[in-house]
């Protein structure tokens, strides 16, 4: 069924006729807004006032599905998603606002080796059982930004951003994990216009994360084991009847921005640093800190935009580094001592992730911040190096992805428009290495169930392709409020030899909504 949807999308894209290029579209403006104003990608909420966005928004609901064997073991075999999203840019006198709310109801089938909501937060202390099963998850996400110039000359602009995410998930088979998470981020910020061509920005980053994970076994006649992972294949095994784990994390940091512009050229530099500390505690009456994880986070980006006639040329380069250390706490004899003595608190595991990207965009402009078409070429790098120090072992993966996409915005005289896009990508894993071997009392259950299948996915070379089509029409002639329907389809295919049965994954999504 998914393949049929993907094959039909070119027919939808071929229905467009000759259009009038003098009109503008709300969905076109929303799509191109982050490209017109690169400050919107930064932590600096005051950037809303640098290039004010018109008062526009959209609300939509949709359904998505993905399936296939080309997946990591902690990802679902089949994932179904129903979502509701509403977002809007709003100007009020000199102030600018942005708000977005989203809700996702997810049905994730066949998740293995993970009992937390998100096993890919880079925290090595994941709790899992070997049974796996189907999860139901509800995810809420609220984001608000506000910005205003302090003076009429716009020499100083203040901003603030807040993002609050709540998640809950449950599995209905023993040992029946139940997880709750709360994640809040605060970003106070300012921008100072040093001159007509130079702007300096500062923003702070405060994040607080909590997750509670509990197990409640309903059938006490069966024996279930809980695996407390300690990084790169190492684990501690406990028999589970009922248990509780808490994750508690804090992140503090900030960023600096520098924008220089002259005539039709604009350059924006953004760099920042944050430090993150997260603890994993087991138990309720006398919780023990099982492990703590400290991570240094660095990021930098450079965005250059050149306006030439009716075209925009944009070059964007970015880099992120996550450098983490994990302490796997070991406890001694607890008889007569509260709490039990700590035997080993050395740093035993390290995680090192790098993400880099370079994008070139060629945009054919339309007036009023709209666009006619966009061509984008990208090179995206991802790398990881995870190590365990006693005994020594290492897991390394480096890959590049090369992407090319084209988006066309067709506008009609009766205020209707049609946006379609096509993209292709090639993922090339040029380096991968793993030398972990279980030692001591460690068995190979985690290696065979989690570590090796994950390495199989990470070392995959893939071909990716996708199509999307969006049609928008006004509620009545000349109205700015319009309805739209959008269909998307993607396919990933592994192109090198694989132990994965099918080595492909399909994605499809249908969305209906309103722009205003």
TrEMBL record:
Pfam family, one: DUF6850
Annotated signal sequence range: 1-19
Domain DUF6850: 45-516
Keyword Acetylation in record: no
Annotated keywords: Signal
InterPro entries given in the database record: DUF6850
Name of the molecule in the record: DUF6850 domain-containing protein
Protein source organism: Pseudobacter ginsenosidimutans
């Amino acid at each position: 069924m998914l393949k049929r949807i993907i094959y039909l999308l070119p027919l939808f894209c071929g229905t467009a006729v000759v259009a009038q290029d003098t009109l503008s579209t709300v969905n076109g403006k929303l799509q191109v807004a982050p490209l017109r104003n690169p400050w919107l990608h930064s932590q600096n909420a005051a950037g809303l006032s640098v290039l004010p966005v018109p008062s526009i928004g959209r609300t939509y609901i949709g359904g998505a599905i993905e399936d296939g064997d080309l997946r990591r073991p902690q990802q679902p075999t089949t994932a179904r998603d129903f979502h509701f999203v509403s977002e809007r840019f709003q100007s009020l006198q000199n102030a600018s606002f942005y708000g977005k709310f989203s809700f996702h109801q997810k049905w994730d089938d066949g998740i293995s080796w993970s009992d937390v909501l998100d096993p890919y937060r880079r925290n090595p202390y994941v709790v899992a059982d070997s049974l796996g099963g189907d999860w139901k998850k509800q995810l809420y996400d609220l984001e608000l930004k506000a910005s205003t110039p302090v003076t009429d000359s716009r020499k100083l602009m203040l901003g603030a951003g807040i993002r609050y995410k709540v998640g809950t998930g449950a599995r209905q088979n023993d040992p029946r994990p139940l997880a709750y998470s709360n994640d809040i981020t605060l970003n106070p910020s300012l921008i100072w216009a040093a001159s007509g061509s130079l702007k300096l920005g500062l923003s702070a980053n405060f994040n607080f994360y909590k997750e509670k994970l509990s197990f409640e076994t309903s059938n006490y006649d069966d024996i279930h084991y809980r695996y407390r992972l300690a990084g790169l294949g190492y684990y501690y095994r406990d028999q589970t009847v009922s248990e509780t784990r808490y994750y508690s994390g804090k992140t503090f940091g900030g960023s600096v921005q520098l924008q220089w512009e002259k005539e039709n050229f604009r350059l924006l530099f953004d760099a920042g640093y944050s430090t993150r500390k997260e603890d994993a505690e087991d138990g309720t009456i006398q919780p023990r800190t099982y492990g703590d994880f400290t991570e240094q986070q660095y990021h930098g980006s450079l965005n250059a935009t050149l306006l030439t006639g009716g075209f925009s040329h944009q070059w964007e380069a970015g880099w992120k580094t996550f450098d983490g250390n994990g302490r796997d706490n070991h406890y001694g004899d607890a008889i007569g001592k509260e709490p039990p003595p700590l035997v080993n608190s050395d740093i035993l595991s390290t995680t090192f992730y790098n993400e880099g990207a370079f994008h070139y965009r060629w945009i054919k402009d339309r007036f009023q911040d709209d666009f006619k078409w966009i061509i984008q070429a990208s090179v995206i790098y991802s790398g990881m190096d995870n190590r365990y120090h006693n005994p020594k072992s290492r897991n390394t993966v480096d890959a590049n992805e090369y992407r090319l996409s084209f988006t066309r915005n067709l506008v009609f005289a009766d205020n209707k428009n049609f946006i379609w896009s096509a993209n292709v990508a090639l993922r090339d894993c040029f380096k991968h290495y793993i030398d972990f071997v279980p030692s001591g009392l460690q068995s190979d259950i985690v290696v065979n169930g989690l570590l090796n299948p994950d390495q199989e996915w990470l070392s995959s070379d893939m071909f990716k392709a996708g199509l999307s089509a969006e049609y928008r029409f006004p509620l009545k002639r000349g109205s700015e409020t319009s309805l739209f329907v959008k269909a998307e389809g993607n396919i990933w295919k592994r192109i090198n030899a694989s132990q994965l049965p099918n080595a492909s994954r399909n994605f499809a999504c249908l969305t209906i909504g309103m722009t205003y």
